[in-house]
């Protein structure tokens, strides 16, 4: 595929939940300074109803003002395929950075993602797909991306997205048990993301990536285990993200971001 609508696709950027990302030339009609944008093309054909769900989700997200959320430019549908365009972040993601990152830079990136999550939460939205590949890197800091699983927190206004749940590793077990996505479940995901970024390992060991049901069973039956290579301060922050007692877990993602700032300053 070398084109969708009036976007000339330059090269693939990678795979995300429910679709693929492409670097594309910016159509003149967008009226923005950037020469290139990132375009996500959903991998499943979608009718008008699915497209309306997508655009509703994007509009909800775009209304949130945050320096740490990717900027959305456009959404459309062509030949049954939905797509949306957003700012291109050439430095890669926390999962696949364009250059090696220091420990302090990784902590700062997760702190920025936590601030983005807090801004979403204050608007009544849970991201529900926080993980290293959805934390994009820029010269100014990190930005939270991938809207495929965003869910409104307001009762009766749920947006479930257009595909399967993302990586099991980053999901709070409470969601697997049928509870609603919330501030606390995103904070759980931020804790797992920090652990993965700092250690390169999962808190559950190696999960069977080809058998989601088995992976879910393992997560539900095994408490998260922290890598012994973490510092005491790092381990304490991550452990608090996982606390089963929600009153002991960070109350807001902004509180977690502040703790990560303090951790970075002490390094």
UniProtKB/TrEMBL annotation:
MF annotations from Gene Ontology: ATP binding; protein serine/threonine kinase activity
Alphabetical UniProt keywords: ATP-binding, Kinase, Nucleotide-binding, Serine/threonine-protein kinase, Transferase
Domain Protein kinase, chain residue ranges per copy: 7-263
InterPro entries (UniProt xref): Kinase-like_dom_sf, Prot_kinase_dom
Superkingdom: Bacteria
Name by which UniProt lists this protein: Serine/threonine-protein kinase
Species in which this protein is naturally found: Iamia majanohamensis
């Amino acid at each position: 595929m070398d084109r969708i609508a009036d976007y000339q696709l330059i090269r693939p950027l990678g795979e995300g939940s429910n679709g693929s990302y492409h670097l594309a030339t910016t159509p003149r009609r967008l009226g923005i300074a950037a020469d290139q944008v990132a375009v996500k093309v959903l991998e499943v054909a979608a009718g008008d109803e699915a497209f309306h769900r997508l655009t509703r989700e994007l509009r909800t997200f775009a209304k949130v003002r945050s320096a740490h959320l990717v900027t959305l430019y456009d959404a459309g549908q062509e030949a049954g395929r939905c797509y949306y365009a957003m700012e291109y972040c050439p430095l890669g993601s926390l999962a696949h950075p364009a250059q090696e990152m220091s420990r302090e830079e990784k902590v700062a990136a997760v702190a920025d993602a936590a601030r983005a999550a807090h801004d979403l939460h204050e608007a009544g939205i849970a991201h529900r797909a926080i993980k290293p590949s959805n934390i994009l890197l820029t010269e100014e800091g990190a930005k939270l991306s991938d809207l495929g699983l965003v869910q409104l927190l307001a009762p009766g206004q749920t947006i479930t997205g257009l595909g399967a749940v993302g990586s099991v590793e980053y999901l709070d077990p409470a969601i697997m048990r049928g509870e609603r996505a919330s501030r606390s479940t995103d904070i759980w995901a931020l804790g797992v993301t920090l652990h993965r970024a700092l250690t390169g390992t999962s808190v559950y060991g190696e999960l069977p990536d080809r058998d989601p049901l088995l992976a879910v069973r393992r997560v539900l039956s095994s408490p998260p285990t922290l890598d012994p290579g973490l510092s005491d301060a790092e381990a304490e922050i991550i452990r608090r993200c996982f606390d089963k007692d929600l009153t002991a877990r960070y109350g807001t993602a902004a509180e977690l971001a502040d703790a990560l700032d303090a951790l970075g300053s002490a390094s």
